[in-house]
Amino acid sequence: MKFDGRKALRVRMDHKQAVNLMGSDGTWRRSCVLLDVSQSGAKIEVEGTLDVLQAKEFFMLLSSTGLAYRRCELVWIDGTMAGVHFINGDTKKKPASGRAAAQNATQSK
């Protein structure tokens, strides 16, 4: 079901799905509830303070053992609600290799 003008198809959770957010360095963790999810992101309700979400990247742990997870970045915060974007290899810009950067520099002259 599409709603809120989103590009990706989102699924609303009928039941509270508990997940955890964890800093990429493992120094912090927050409990939250998954409200809706799509292939590209999710809407969550965070328990506790939201100050740690200012980190550039963090993990959403989908299982209690941490074996199922998604790498995320914060998109928006509204009260206790937050929107996150899932990061994968396709959406992350990779730096050009030294050789490719040198070739682009010489071609543009």
Summarize the structure.
Helices cover 9% and strands 47% of the residues.
Question: Topology of this protein?
Answer:
Blueprint: E1 10-23, E2 29-38, E3 41-46, E4 58-61, E5 69-78, E6 81-87, H1 98-107
Distance between the termini: 50 Å
**Considering DSSP H and I runs of 4 or more, what fraction of the residues is helical?**
under 10%
String of helices and strands: EEEEEEH
Share of β-strand residues: over 45%
Low-confidence stretches: 93-109
Radius of gyration: 17 Å
Strand order of the largest sheet: 1-2-3-6-5-4
Largest sheet: 6 strands, antiparallel, barrel
Give average pLDDT, whole number.
80
Helix count, DSSP H or I runs of 4 or more residues: 1
Tell me, what's the shape? globular
SS class: mainly beta
What's the β-strand tally?
A: 6
Keywords:
single chain, 109 residues, mainly beta
Question: What would you say this structure looks like, in words?
Answer:
- The chain has a 6-stranded antiparallel barrel with strand order 1-2-3-6-5-4.
- Mean pLDDT is 80; it is low at 93-109.
- The chain has 1 helix and 6 strands; from the N terminus they run ββββββα.
- The longest helix is centred in the C-terminal third of the chain and has 10 residues, at 98-107.
- 14% of the residues are buried.
- It has one helix spanning 98-107, and strands spanning 10-23, 29-38, 41-46, 58-61, 69-78, 81-87.
- The N and C termini lie far apart (50 Å).
- The chain is mainly beta.
